[in-house]
Write a structure and sequence with these properties.
CATH topology of the domain at 106-113 and 121-375: Porin
Strand content: over 45%
Helix content: under 10%
Structural class: mainly beta
Radius of gyration: 21 Å
CATH class of the domain at 106-113 and 121-375: Mainly Beta
Number of strands: 17
Order of helices and strands: EHEEEEEEEHEEEEEEEEE
Keywords: Signal
Distance between the termini: 18 Å
Shape: globular
Oligomer: single chain
Protein name: Polymerase
Length: about 375
């Protein structure tokens, strides 16, 4: 996500308006008006995107977001389908399609994701104390298909099933590095198929910009030894808790804690190990710099809705990966930062966010940091 630039120049998201309105008036209504559209109509936003990073070269692509309701907007959460694709001068490809759909009165909630990525991977080894000097460059071919479906069992309580398939292939771009020295290359290819159960408590007043309520999701999945060779088999335990408290009409205090545990039957492939750092939690850490079998992190945000269209955020958190070594208090890593929010769909509270995060400064290395441009809130 570093060095990523989104060009807000696409005008394809303009919804249908009265024919007598000029283009300028329609643009103002869509992107700058402080009044939300209460009609409950669907909306489409298409944005060209591009960027640069040393590993990928120049990249260009597009992303589209289609939002809609499957029922009355007063009793049904908004559904959203997002698609994105980018291509770089170094022939790197990244494509993703995600559908998140709520049925009438939120009785059912389904989510499905398909992702393909051929991408340069900066690999530092595994553990909570990897070194920047050990950086080894790989090429990752990754395909993921996963999803879940939940059924409302009681007000604010859901139960459901989840399943997925993932396939990984790696090519070492630099011979003699840590990838081969530490025998990680025995996992040059890998597949995993899993299925499990989940339960969710959800009392949030809005799924896109929450100012009040709680969210708690836990799941346990099992990956059988379905494939021959060095492939993951075992159990996957995930937990995600969020709490939102309104301090004033414009200020919200938000908290999140996550835990991701992989219990492997045999050697644990590095590519499935939880990674610290992304655009959602522990912002500021290069994703994959620290990875291990277990990952625990927590963060807090102060959200300030400056105007209906714009908001500000300050955040901070703590996190650690462990497994090779036990969890240790002195191994916990901090992060902090701030961000800006632009709400392009006021009725559904769908936002584009810009965050800049800082992590720890290790001896002999620059302070870790990252800039992110993403859709919707971090949590």
């Amino acid at each position: 996500m570093r060095y990523f630039i989104v060009l807000f120049v696409s005008l394809l998201s303009i919804s249908s308006y009265a024919q007598q309105k000029t283009l300028i008036e329609r643009l103002y209504d869509k992107f700058l008006s402080q009044q939300s559209d209460t009609s409950g109509k669907s909306s489409l936003l298409v944005l060209p995107s591009g960027g640069y990073a040393p590993e990928t070269g120049l990249s260009a692509g597009a992303q589209a977001i289609y939002s809609f309701y499957r029922g009355d907007r007063h009793s049904t959460n908004p559904s959203m389908i997002t698609a994105s694709a980018t291509y770089s001068t170094k022939k790197m490809v990244n494509g993703k399609l995600v559908a998140d759909v709520w049925s009438k009165h939120n009785d059912l909630h389904g989510n499905a994701e398909i992702r393909y990525r051929k991408y340069p991977l900066s690999f530092f080894g595994t553990g909570n104390n990897t070194r920047e000097a050990d950086l080894d460059r790989l090429t990752e071919n990754k395909f993921v298909f996963k999803g879940f479906i939940d059924k409302k069992l009681a007000p604010g309580f859901y139960g459901g099933i989840r399943a997925g398939f993932e396939n990984y292939e790696y090519t070492d771009q630099e011979s003699g590095g840590i990838f081969t020295q530490m025998l990680y290359d025995k996992f040059r290819t890998g597949k995993v198929i899993y299925a499990g159960l989940q339960q969710t408590i959800d009392t949030r007043n809005s799924i896109n910009y929450t100012t009040r309520g709680n969210y708690f999701n836990t799941s346990i999945s099992y990956a059988p030894r379905f494939f021959k060779g060095n492939h993951f088999s075992g159990a996957i335990l995930l937990a995600d808790y969020r709490n939102f408290l309104p301090a004033t009409d414009k200020i919200t205090i938000a908290f999140q804690a996550i835990s991701r545990h992989f219990f492997s039957q045999g050697s644990m492939p590095f590519y499935l190990m939880p990674e610290m750092g992304n655009d959602e939690i522990m912002r500021g850490y290069f994703q994959g710099r620290f990875r291990d079998k277990y990952y625990t992190a927590a963060q807090a945000e102060i959200k300030y809705r400056l105007t209906p269209r714009f908001g500000l955020v300050a955040f901070g958190g703590l996190g650690e990966v462990y497994g090779q070594r036990p969890f240790a208090v002195n191994g916990v890593k901090p992060n902090y930062g701030a961000g800006l929010r632009y709400f392009y769909d006021l009725e559904k509270n769908i936002s584009i966010r810009l965050d800049y995060g800082f992590g720890e400064k290790r001896a002999g290395e620059k302070r870790q940091r990252g800039f992110y441009i993403s859709l919707n809130e971090a949590f």
